[in-house]
Specification:
The complex is a heterodimer. By secondary structure, chain A is an all-alpha fold. Chain A has one domain: ABC transporter involved in vitamin B12 uptake, BtuC. Helix content of chain A is about 75%, strand content about 0%. Classes of the chains: A mainly alpha, B alpha/beta.
């Protein structure tokens, strides 16, 4: 009896510790956000088309599993842009320019793919690095402005989204090798520059997702274990204290923006260099003056993942899963916009994550206390009887 | 039976890892000034926050005029006539005095604010109690003392009869303190009841009728102030005897470790220079105190000295090396430790843990990192050592978020870090601000130990007692200039005051400390 009591108390203590742990509460908050978002999304579907709502929702929820390869393929670029946003956010920088960095990275990769003649084994690797370089350049410029002239990075990076997009569209349209003007899209990339496929039938999934996950893990280690991560987070939490401690704030701002840009640029490269499921073709880009949505989706991914690289890996796969499933909801007559609404709702709820976190911890605590209290009463009663 | 207006019975309030109030009882009589005394982290503010409805106690009950009441939020407290002046004022900076006073209880007809009645009432109140403020001035433009008057007027405007003052004198000048104490006495004579949180014993002796003492979250006792002494109160507060005088060995002055010559620093607030042509030296083995009334250029001077701001003219030499243009890190490596004025802004990363803050100046040293990877075991060991040595108290040890620690213990983290770091010069800026006597005694001891260990100490202080007791040499700063050099053994507080207020100055400062 006593043993049982002790063990239950022990488990309670663990639960209590758990509610204090940062990672746990961020995770439960994200889960709650997702659950609430899905419920609300279902309501939206019910309103839109009551008869097909259940089946449509079934597609949203489970449809992704039947196309898991493509879920991973589409997760790759938003995983990278999510990391680009989340990493900068750890330093207190809001990198809204992931779109521009992504587009620039994509163009650099395309350029190397079409214009450089390299041996098959190396070509795609060089193209990937070129993409990273392009993104880095597009992160570096807002970083310089922020560090040296204290220009708000939000404004510069929004501007650089447009500058990047229009430049890339112009460069592509003026290059006869890259651009097929009759189809207003880029040409099919040579197969030597396509990233090796993971061999899942009927999908574009390739080594890019593995690289992206590995990069996420590396970033996690950098943030948690290195002096650079220590400085970065210290600056994000309190830039005055980091200056007081002699950290090089300006250098760190530039470095962070360069890294963030490089991450988004890699995202662009991974997206465009993917092998196509149809032999002889490849991914293409249409220069139609639209800012890449993958950049903005990265903000959502980073938010849902609490800017934690590991969290971002999961949130990008989740969002991609919902998007893929959502595209299947077409089959029962749902517009793709509905799925955008569901995703938006999930993001909206993740903004409440902080409140939920506090609320959940409090709830568990009061429950524990009540249990404790009633147990105490029972003990008193038994004592009285004996 | 005394007629208690407020009774707080057996109040218990817990936070993660710490019991802030453990079975505390406090009774407030009508028309008395009741002081609440305790060290930092003793639970004074928590207890008052429970009374004001900011926290809910887990156990215990509150009675008003003998009836049990529940106070779930400040509005409930307000309805019961309880008002509070917080340590950090809760004012809207860009609103006027009048707008702040009526905030939340705006007199209106159909949603349009009627200011004229409110203004008349505010003017009447401020004249009645001698709380002179301009109702149309913006909060951001008036002094801290004025802002406090606004907070007091807020309570009076709401016709509160129980007034809580949370460390009201921490931010005031000596003259303002005197005035405030007089006003508090006036309230009590009028029948209002006052709870006065403080750890300044002089103020308690001067103004309070009774005093309740807390220590580490527990109730120690309630005494009549007339029947007690400062020594007894401080013993109740910290649980041991406190010496108000600093024991010091005679100086063993050695070589010059810090030389400042003709330093001029531009002001950020106005076009003139905040620091003008300041020259002095600090030698190993002495404590030099830079005294002065707040806002006379001390902050700007320290910023320039430690590298946070640039100086426009002059030079600084640290241990024989010119560091006028050196980076903050280079100064730190060169032997400068800095206990900053604002511990939350500069001294700590509040969202970091205790151990992470302990290595804030040293995380890059080979002891704590290898190839850019932080050695967490070494950090943990180091932090645990410092926690033990400097008696830093926290809920969860090295992993405690610094934000959750009490002010005194936060300051101990900085002091431990800066004193343990290899240094020749210790720049301590108002190191005891907002701390209780126990912590002050401790910090003074640390400063003296540092001096005895052959370091040069530059102490920047606004507290006259501290200036007189701790320093070996006093430099008085007035409007950005050094206006006098005094020997604490031969000078008096009155004379020091004259220098600080600019009424007196001596210009011979290079010659009278030769050797």
């Amino acid at each position: 009896m006593q043993d049982k009591n002790r063990s239950s108390r022990k488990s309670m203590l663990n639960l209590e510790n758990l509610t204090h742990s940062k990672g746990f509460s961020a995770f439960t908050a994200a889960l709650l956000a997702v659950a609430l978002g899905l419920i609300f999304g279902f309501i939206v579907m019910l309103v839109a088309s009551p008869g097909n709502a259940l089946q449509g929702f079934n597609y949203v929820l489970l449809g992704g599993f039947s196309r898991f390869g493509n879920v991973l393929y589409f997760a790759t670029p938003i995983l990278m842009t999510g990391l680009a946003v989340g990493f900068a956010f750890k330093m207190g920088l809001f990198n809204i320019g992931a779109s521009g960095q992504y587009t620039m990275g994509m163009f650099f990769a395309l350029y190397v793919g079409f214009m450089w003649d390299l041996p098959p084994g190396i070509h795609w690797i060089v193209a990937i690095f070129a993409g990273m370089l392009g993104g880095m350049l597009w992160g570096f410029i807002p970083g310089i402005f922020k560090a040296l002239l204290n220009v708000n990075e939000v404004i510069t990076s929004i501007m650089f989204n447009y500058i990047g997009m229009y430049l890339v569209d112009m460069w592509i349209q003026s290059n006869a090798v890259i651009y097929v003007s009759s189809k207003s899209r880029t040409n099919y990339l040579p197969s030597t520059v396509q990233i090796p496929s993971l061999g899942i039938d009927g999908s574009n999934v390739n080594f890019g997702i593995l690289f992206a996950v590995i990069i996420g893990i590396i970033l996690f280690i950098v943030l948690q274990k290195t002096t650079f991560g220590y400085e970065l987070k210290a600056t994000g939490f309190n830039k005055h204290a980091s200056a007081y401690a002699g950290m090089k704030g300006k250098r760190n701002i530039i470095l962070t923006m360069v890294i963030a840009g490089g991450l988004a640029g890699l995202g662009g490269a991974f997206a465009i260099l993917a092998p196509s499921a149809i032999a002889g073709s490849s991914m293409t880009y249409e220069p139609i003056s639209i800012i890449a949505a993958n950049g903005f989706n990265g903000i959502a991914v980073a938010l849902l993942g609490s800017s934690n690289p590991i969290g971002i890996i999961f949130s990008s796969i989740f969002i991609s899963h919902i998007q893929r499933g959502g595209s299947l909801a077409n089959l029962v007559g749902f517009k793709p916009e509905i799925i955008d609404v569901v995703i938006a709702v999930i993001i909206y709820f993740s903004a409440f994550a902080m409140i939920m976190k506090a609320g959940l911890a409090k709830f568990i605590k009061t429950r524990l206390k009540k249990q404790d209290h009633s147990k105490g009463l029972n003990e008193d009663v038994t004592k009285g009887e004996s | 039976m005394d007629n208690y207006i407020v009774e707080m019975l057996n109040i218990t309030k817990e936070f993660p890892g710490i019991i802030a109030n453990d079975n505390i009882t406090l009774n407030l009589k009508k028309g008395e000034v009741h002081a609440l005394l305790g060290e930092n982290g003793a639970g004074k503010s928590t207890l008052m926050s429970v009374l004001f409805g900011l926290y809910q106690a887990e156990k215990g009950e509150i009675r008003k005029d003998g009836n049990k009441v529940t106070i779930n939020n400040p509005n409930d407290a307000n309805a019961l006539g309880i008002g509070m002046v917080h340590q950090h004022f809760k004012l809207v900076e860009i609103f006027t005095v009048l707008e702040n006073i009526i905030l939340g209880v705006e007199p209106n007809t159909m949603g349009f604010i009627q200011k004229s009645d409110a203004r008349a009432k505010v003017v009447e109140l401020s004249e009645k109690y001698g709380l002179m403020v301009n109702p149309d001035a913006l909060i951001e433009e008036i002094s801290v003392g004025m802002q406090q008057r606004v907070e007091i007027l807020k309570m009076l405007y709401r016709e509160n009869e129980i007034l809580i003052f949370d460390e009201p004198t921490a931010v005031l000048t000596p003259q303002e303190i005197k005035e405030l104490l007089k006003i508090m006495r006036g309230f009590a004579e009028e029948g209002k009841s006052i709870l006065f949180i403080t750890h300044k014993l002089n103020e308690i002796m001067e103004v309070a009728d009774r005093c309740t003492v807390l220590r580490k979250g527990k109730y120690v006792g309630t005494v009549n102030v007339k029947e007690t002494t400062k020594e007894e109160l401080s013993k109740m507060m910290v649980g041991r005897d406190i010496s108000f005088n600093v024991d010091k060995k005679p100086m063993a002055i050695k070589e010059v470790v810090l030389a400042v010559s003709n330093v001029t620093v531009p002001s950020k607030l106005h076009k003139n220079n905040a620091v003008k042509n300041v020259t002095f030296e600090v030698r190993a083995g002495e404590i030099v105190c830079l005294a002065g009334i707040d806002g006379n250029g001390q902050t700007e001077f320290v910023s320039a000295l430690t590298g946070l701001e640039k100086l426009s003219a002059g030079s600084i030499t640290l241990c024989g090396k010119d560091i006028t243009k050196a980076s903050i890190r280079a100064r730190s490596i060169g032997g400068m430790s800095h206990i900053p004025e604002d511990r939350h802004k500069h001294g700590l990363v509040l969202d970091y843990s205790l151990e992470e803050n302990m290595v804030l100046q040293r995380y890059w040293e080979p002891t704590f990192q290898k190839n850019g990877f932080i050695k967490f075991d070494a950090v943990r060991n180091y932090a645990e050592g410092l926690i033990k040595r400097f008696d830093v108290r926290s809920g969860q040890g090295p992993i405690t978020p610094v934000r959750s620690m009490s002010g005194g213990n936060q300051q101990k983290v900085i002091i431990a870090r800066e004193i343990d770091k290899k240094h020749e010069v210790l720049v301590a800026v108002q190191p005891t601000r907002g701390l209780d006597v126990g912590a002050i005694e401790y910090i003074h001891k640390q400063l003296v130990e540092s001096r005895d260990a052959g370091k040069g100490v530059l102490l920047v202080s606004l507290e006259l007692d501290e200036v007189m007791n701790v320093s070996d040499r006093i430099l008085v700063m007035y409007e950005g200039e050094i206006v006098g050099e005094l020997d604490p053994k031969t000078t008096t507080v009155q004379e020091l005051g004259l220098y600080m207020s600019g009424a007196k100055r001596n210009t011979v400062k290079e010659n009278n400390h030769a050797g």
